[in-house]
Amino acid sequence: MWRLPGVRAALRGVRIAVEQRSRAGAATETAAGAMERAIVRCVPSEPKLSLSFALADGSHKNMQRDQSEPVGRALSRIATNAIKGHAKAAAAKKSRKNRPNSSGGAACAGPGPESAAAREPVVKLYYREEAVAEDVLNVDAWQDGAVLQIGDVKYKVERNPPAFTELQLPRYIMAGFPVFPKLSLEFGDPACSLFRWYKEAKPGAAESEASGPSSLSPSLPSSTWIETGADERVYIPSNADIGLRLLLHCTPGNGQRFGPSRERVSVCPVEAGPGTCTFDHRHLYTKKVTEDALIRTVSYNILADTYAQTEFSRTVLYPYCAPYALELDYRQNLIQKELTGYNADVICLQEVDRDVFSDSLAPALEAFGLEGVFRIKQHEGLATFYRKSKFSLLSQHDISFHEALKSDPLHKELLEKLVLYPWAQVRVLQRSSVLQVSVLQSTKDSSKKICVANTHLYWHPKGGYIRLIQMAVALAHIRHVSCDLYPGIPVIFCGDFNSTPSTGMYHFVINGSIPEDHEDWSSNGEEERCNMSLTHFFKLKSACGEPAYTNYVGGFHGCLDYIFIDLNALEVEQVIPLPSHEEVTTHQALPSVSHPSDHIALVCDLKWK
């Protein structure tokens, strides 16, 4: 969310103050011999609770206990673990003392540790300064603020504190491109959490420059780390970071308290970026989120990794593209920067790999205030994102074209026409294309709802009649949602329709009908001809017009992508200009080192009438 610079500075000051108080408090508590932490995770939907704490010997214990178990049994198990840990520490100490000294003699062993190890430490649980009875069940005994005592060490029990269940940094990081950590929180909120970024000190850097986190995990590399000055969730490396790894230090929070901090170091150092990209100039038009009356909409086929990473793609489809620029890790940097830079309210994506949605797009766009839904096709699928400050998701109405055509009474008449052409029927029902339909409601005005549809029609150049039938199914289904289920709500229909403006599919959408003698009914020859007339209810137009091309590869260029809008309820406020022909062809064609897909994103600002 965009904020005034003063507000951003104030929030940054709060974060720094909280961190400083936290560190100062920790230092004071340590000096005073204050309590350690015992972290308890206990949720009603699970039969067991977990208990995590560090013993005096330095070992870390993670225990799983039945919620319905008496706490006395759990305490007895803790005592057993403490005895074992003490025995191990004593044995190690004895071993060190028995080693020969420098003069060749054996060191004095001193009193045997066995008697000390055998003494069972006092293990008690207190709540509000009273001992918890041993027959109290675990679910009731381990309360937030309770005190666990193991021997002379006391632990403050923290029940369900904010915690990161997942924290990852991208494998490939480039200067000038935002780094989006993938994170999942339990009992917390990223907006209430603290983030601080560090970079590796360059070889030979002065020790005075180092200012790494005060308590790095022992498993992390023992490098010298320097603060970058960045305390936001997203970090954009500079050219000065090239060749250095990054470290992210996170403290999860929920607005009331903070949980245990975690760190993550990038696997690889920061790489140099590609320089100017095709979308950089477009971002000049989309610097801010639009006002409430507008809906900035993006439609984009991002080129699925499952198609980009084939020998056919490298040698036949995109031989002009540098191999590294087809790698997913590289392209994800460009896709994330491009999409987040549009500051869109609605984003419809095609050719989205399932893992790309969950591991890359969802974390990146969520950091910028968007939430997404995904619909798989076969090897890839569709994704629709919406800005949470403007919209909430009311319902989803996704369909598979072939399944809907066969089983939904809504398409009975169309199916009766198609069965008259058996060859065509077989081909249509073999296709796996899907339609994603999401109904969104305005967060500012609950009376305002909108139907957002997203699809990727059959790709084959000779599949014109298949695309016509798919579009007929799509429009009938969208009408059912926007007229029967939610009467009168406007429609935005985005996608890669694999149809140029001269095709029957486009004619059908724009004009509302297609005659039975249109040439596309025989697009794959006479054997599969299926003459029929079709009509639809909507009054639609292409919001971005008819660009010369939205797909530009070595052997083809043409307009295949559209954002169709309901003319009765929406109008176009602004169309974001496409990249210039010079930008598109700088590296011959798309994709390239400066553009991550073979398609170009359509971006426009729509306005409620």
Shape summary? elongated
Largest sheet: 7 strands, mixed
Unreliable stretches: 1-12, 16-32, 105-117
Distance between the termini: 26 Å
Q: What is the helical fraction, as a range of percent?
A: 25-40%
Strand content: 25-35%
**Backbone CA Rg:** 31 Å
* Strands in their spatial order, largest beta sheet: 3-2-1-7-6-4-5
> Helices and strands: which structural class?
alpha+beta
**Average residue pLDDT:** 89
Q: How many beta-strand runs?
A: 30
Determine the number of helices (DSSP H or I, runs of at least 4 residues): 14
Catalytic activity: Exonucleolytic cleavage of poly(A) to 5'-AMP
Biased composition (Basic residues): 87-99
Keywords: Exonuclease, Hydrolase, Magnesium, Metal-binding, Mitochondrion, mRNA processing, Nuclease, Phosphoprotein, Transit peptide
Enzyme class: hydrolase
